[in-house]
Structures
1.
Amino acid sequence: MIPIIVLIGRTNVGKSTLFNVLTKTRDALVANYPGITRDRQYGYCKLQSNKKIILIDTAGLDIKLNEIEKQAQAQTLIAIKEAHLILFLVNARDGLMPQEYEISKNIRKYQKKTILVINKIDGINEASKINEFYSLGFEKIQKISASHNQGINTLINRYLIPWISEKFKKKITENLYKDTELKKIAIKVAFIGRPNVGKSTLINGILKEERMITSNTPGTTLDSISTPIKYNYENYTLIDTAGASKKKKKINDFQRFSIIKTLQTIEKSNVILLIIDASLQTCHQDLSLADFIIHSGKGIVVVVNKCDLFNSVELKKIKELIKSKLKFLYFSKIHFISALYKKGIFQLFKSIKESYEDSKRKISTSTLIKTMHIAIKKHQPPIIKGRRIKLKYAHLGSSNPPKIIIHGNQVKYLSLPYKRYLINFFYKTLKIKGTPIQIQFKDNENPYVKNKN
């Protein structure tokens, strides 16, 4: 069993900053706005002597306003139940707030070991402001500044390592290697799309639990949230992301960070599910996202959600329209589903696995050369300045995505339509599905040209 530690506190006390410092990542979204963290965010923290813990970042416990914030608090309470240890964060600059008496009272109901962490101590000269936190009645207290990395080593060495050694003993090292192995082979699947297309609802449907906060309000998900799952003996990591909305004249910093994190998630993932709302017209934003995914070289599966809103005749028209607009994604599977009613959602895994395996496929040089020669025989390259462009041989430059390098003479003069013809021919002949192929052309240099100069 791996120790689980949860970060609890009011909004804007520095929970996400401490999460990023301890996990040595930037997985948690950090901004100077209250209520940015909503869903539970999990991360690994590696300590000395191969000790490893799971850290959970949570939403602030002091907001009880709208439906989204109520769901965020429910997620936080689930995290407290899962955890073995609570790090209760408070803000030294704000001083002791009335809500913190209420939070400490609620924490004690769970009878979990708790460490009070007084954050943002940098620049605080008034000892009275810090001392008033002792009235909360917690035995173990640590003063830190997460943003300046002050007191973090003391927190780890004085409290976390001794607690793990005492409670979990030998099991930690054993689990470290098991989890590292699982993590290596997990297929990372990112759920990408415009706001309110049903990304979080789809993940909840697959997990068969309310793991992600959902609502009819666009922009409910602000951060990229990863969740591990095992399906048909395969390990997957499902990553929910913030919706990539249309360009606006005014956007907040955290909205800008959310979009950046979504694009970074695409780069880090193996396969992308591009979610499209069947009730809305396929717009420029959907096409831009598809184009970005193709250029990032990631496997792509198109998912058209909310098909339950239409009858068979209407759905047939929608299918034809979407297929027409996305014809440049001819190598990808298109699934028509209803995430809300869980129709067609588990068929996605077959396309995800197919896309992942084809992106890592090793293709022999002889197969590529043979395929290239058949393509040339069917349709020869154009003649430039009285000489025909010659394609001599091809080989695999890299995989994930497959990158084919073709060598020849005057290849820089190849037209875009002929390059497209070659890519399409490789797709059909090699039967590659769900992943983009990249082709690079290299001119053979004439060794005598340099000697003449």
2.
Amino acid sequence: MGAVTVNKVAEVSAQYLAELDENAVPSGYKQTEVGVIPEDWDVENLQKLTVLIIDGTHHTPRYTTYGVPFLRVTDIQGELDDSEFKYVSEEEHAYLIRRCRPQKGDLLLSKNGTIGIPKVVSWEWEFSIFVSLALIKLKKNLLEVNYLEQFFKSDFLDLQLAQRAKQGTVTNLHLEEIREILIPLPRNKEEQTAIANALSDVDALISELEKLIAKKQSIKTATMQQLLTGRTRLPQFALREDGSKKGYKQSELGEIPEDWDVVTLGEICNFENGDRSSNYPSAHEFVEYGVSFINAGHVADGLIDLRYMDYIPEHVYERLGGGKVAAGDVLFCLRGSLGKFGVVPEEFGSGAIASSLVIIRPKKHRTTTDYVSVYFKSEFSKEMITLWAGGAAQPNLGARELANFLVPLSSKEEQGCIATILSDMDTEIQALQQRLTKTRQIKQGMMQELLTGKTRLIQPAGSTN
């Protein structure tokens, strides 16, 4: 997508906004059931723009090891993955497509469970579908299939369903409801195509970012496993004083470098529970702002989320006999989502933990906060959680169990180098995730502009703009 298109979409016409301030409907636009759209656009229900809207078979077929693909909602989420397909026999497929035959150029739409997911049939191979998918065959002289796909990716469907629903969340779409969906539509198919292409270009960018992030995360996971087991040694730690290569030894965690140890978490960290006595804050004591009172919902991915933080007054904090945090503490979740944790940053200030957390305070002469954080993101930690949580329906841990977690431990200097490498990889991934979030926001803004005609990629005949 060219820079001219992005700039045009990103900067809404000043004339349009000025006219919108002065009038409910700007010049050249009209009010419709779906909002304000250009005068040379129409609003049509989907049935008028289609040859057929039907769903897949209502019975579960007899699956086969090989045969013809049989698609469900899960198959059209993201890129097609034939390793996840179900298959039916040629005979059953021939029977199923007598009623519902998908073809290239059609649109699939999820109608049960996760509703409103569109997928253009862009392939030639035969397949049949389950009842959870609707098949939409278009009047191709009226409607561009990629434009319709972008419509379903926008908020329009959700808004229309929300207006119709009396209460609750809509989890199923009936065929009649799909047929009645209102589509804001440029009469000029070239404009439909231009809009679809602009939005598809951003979709492609989003997809590439998602793949890149997944690749970086996979590399980081593999790197973490190599560094934390010592299978890959950093050059400055790989040799003995005489220049020979260091070897390995067997341990409770498998093979580790000869100059490493396996220790318990209790040997390298102290633990502190929150105050669970009568001093524990009551619900009525929470205030709009004060001292942070951190619970399991506030920690994830090594961070503490302040957006929905709970607060207690200073005098309530002062009466607590324990569980007061300090910079560098690791706050670990003991119940429910075991393994979640957050690190208290230097600038955090005063705070205390709820009973769902425990403070893990590294012993500075043995280890560092950064290394303990790396450990809790590793497979070692996951295995220890599985071992010590007991496999209950509602798993939980205590400080006593955490203290028994086994940790592969190198020198503090090597720990620091390992943590730095992995932290740098985290920083790169976080930057990509922020870029992805921003790109998705741009896509949402573009859909709002383009699918309502606020920004025109092709000017109407006779326009002087």
3.
Amino acid sequence: MTYTLRSALIPVEDSYATVDVQIEGDRIAAIGASLPTVGTAIDAENKLLLPGFVNGHAHSVQFWQRGLIPQLPLELWLADVFDTSPTELEQTYLGALGTAISTLLSGGTCVMDHLYVIPGQELESIAAASRAYKEVGIRAFIAPLIQDMPFVSGYPEGVKTLPHQPYHQSTDELLALMEAIVAQSHAPEDGIQIAVGPTGFHRCSDALFEGCRDLSDRHNLCRHIHLLETKAQKMLAQERYGGSAVKHLQQLGFLDHRTSLAHSIWLDAADIEVLAETKSTVVHNALSNLRLGSGIAPVLKYLQAGVNVAFGCDGAASNDGQDMLEAIKIGSLLHNVTDPDYKHWITPRKAVEMASIGGFTGVNLADQVGSLTVGKQADLVLYDLKNLSLLPRTDPIKLLILGRPNAAVDSVWVRGQQVFADGTLKTVDTSHFTQTVFNYGEVYSKPQYKTIHQVEAHYRRVMGLAECGDA
């Protein structure tokens, strides 16, 4: 398809310009004033045009756990997550559908889905999520979340103290599974890419990291993990490696320009230097970090050191939504309290840059997409500047990032295809989707959590908290 966007407002330096934009095939063909109309003319007057954002870290299946899990620290919250994880392939499909729709409605055109797969149905799980993303028309990187160590290995002193069984899949079995997933579902030409997704050092062996590294090299896959999300993980790194988890991952050769690291909260100055040296990306998930009490990532220090930083929503079990604009706002303003020098604070325009080109840098596509540049792929979003939440007519980007935009997205193009127009999704029947999801939840019931009772006392002891039941 070919489009000409008429009279769109775009940011230029510290101001704005009104331009026409031509889209031919999947590319931005021209940007300028008074361009001839080619293809379908789109009235973009009084609309802000920005590149699409990247939801740099999500767990789509957690769509079903929105509003479900109590406020707990990660290590206990995760026990409740595992006890309530969906087990049906249709839920995997619908969770990816919901994640894609929510991301699009908040300005995102790409998602990194660190996907929980159903045991014994791993290939089918990937296929279900892939089908959903293709139907919606969003870009997706699917990183199957894998581990080869038991649940208790994620706790300091967990393996030597808590009862456990070996993990049910061996390292070799997991790597063979990943090869099969790549063969089945890696389809960059369709906007769907497989990434390697070992959950993190806390539940993954060196052999699994090395195998994923090699798989990434063979197929040029992105690499995506959780990194030092909590103080407990910092303690665990010291216990396991006698020092830095970041340095250890560097020694394994896992960190490079294709690597994105979710959270990255408990890093020191030496760790930050490693990230800058290896050109790794940090994905900042401020909302989940606050909900779980994990801490505040040193994002201003990352930026000052030249580390690429993107934004993510994280899973809906720790965010209770997938709103990119909300994630960007909180992820920007939060750091005003971490540095008294306001010259270091993240401006709204810097936040847009981090969410777009920063996000696409994290998935190794910055040379192809992520900015309003002729020749790049057309992942574009129009925002309606007559929407009440973007009024009065002060500064559109400040209103978008610092305000509370409500249904402000007017149109979205992904790889040159218009998937959202005039406030309506063109690819999927959203009313049928919402009714289907509603029908899954006919009865509101409290889940039965079991795993937390097996680990809570241990967690409180190693973290220096009062024993359960103590005042």
4.
Amino acid sequence: MADGVYWDREKETRSREAREAEVLANLQSQLRFVYDALPFYRSHYDAHGFHPDQVKSLDDFSKRVPIVTKPMLRDDQAAAPPFGRYLGCEAADIIRVHGSSGTSGKPTLYAFSRGDWDYIADVMAQGLYTCGVRPGDIVQLATVFSLFMGGWGSLLGVERLGATAFPLGAGETERQLDLMYRIGATVLITTPTYALHMLETARALGYDAAKSPLRLGIFIGEPGSSIPGTRQALEQGWGIKVRDMATTSEMTPWSTNAECEAAAGPHVMQDEVWTEIVAKDDSSRLLPDGESGAIVYTHLKRRSQPMIRFYAGDESHMVYEPCSCGRTYPRLPAGVYGRLDDMLLIRGANVYPSQVQRSLLEVPGTGVEFKIVLEKKGALDHATVLVERDPAATPADIDHFAADLRERVRHKLKNDTAVNFEVDILPPNTLERALSKAKRVDDRRPKYRPGGH
């Protein structure tokens, strides 16, 4: 099927009209299936006065079908353990069980049928092929292998594509580097945060990272690789091409947002997972091309735990303008900005941690590690950015260098975010390093409790 450029040329280059005709038919089929077979969806739709017969067009789908959220899935699994009332297959047909990280309580469990597991491998392979992985590559998987689907989905796709998988897992960074060079890994799959940590460690150990055997990095699990400063640090530091990929674990196969060689933002594989950008305050209002909003995803073909209009809580914008690679999928030109619930409200201004990261990386002299600390002083919010200086910077007068850097960072952040941040410049290797997703915010402000004091 793959021809050196496309995983499936006909599918990836067909007209929007042909693709969307197929999408509508698949959406109608999925709606009938979940309404007839899955009590979770039937009760949800009945409560909203919706019936699958009401969907005659893609516009109907956006306007009429109610969304599903993560709390709804957690509540349904608590009421009907272990998999909720939306399993979609016989228990005996489940081949794998995974789950969310469970950082806010019990993990939400993901069950995959045998047929879906095979289907997921195909779509994961298409995503990786879009990013540039080819048979003959040695793919180092520096990802967590646990409940989290990131590593497992990557492994499935690499194997289906025909490349060599090297599933090391996350952590043991010195060993990661030793083995990378020893076996000649050509592709790295991990989070942007861990790739930057690996780079920092490589330099400290005396490696010439820009001459590593790697040629390509595919970054998953968190925003970052679409941020220009982060991309530049990774590309120049490792001497690689950077590709952004991923949706969210609930939407496995999560590779349906995958960036091509044009490096113009991830293509959205609309014929596998239908993706909408909707108003943040009205999930039934589809936004025009190029306008930022909330992302809503729908499985078109998966039958075990299918997600229909899943409100992921992420923000982006989508465009249909042509891509030089020839694929006719729409794109997310800036990737996923971040989670809507990660947005910080500081003295009336809305700020994303990824926005702060973007600004910091544009100031010469800063390192890649930072943290935002929020406190309440009197009646006002007080915001501080802790940022390490670049370990490559070795000025004769450290104090003068830090003072100058502090002012340049403050000015940049004020200009970009409209927030007056205090800035502390820290020595390299001061902040804790993450093996997967970074925790960039320490919000110490008192939490408001209705009826409390």
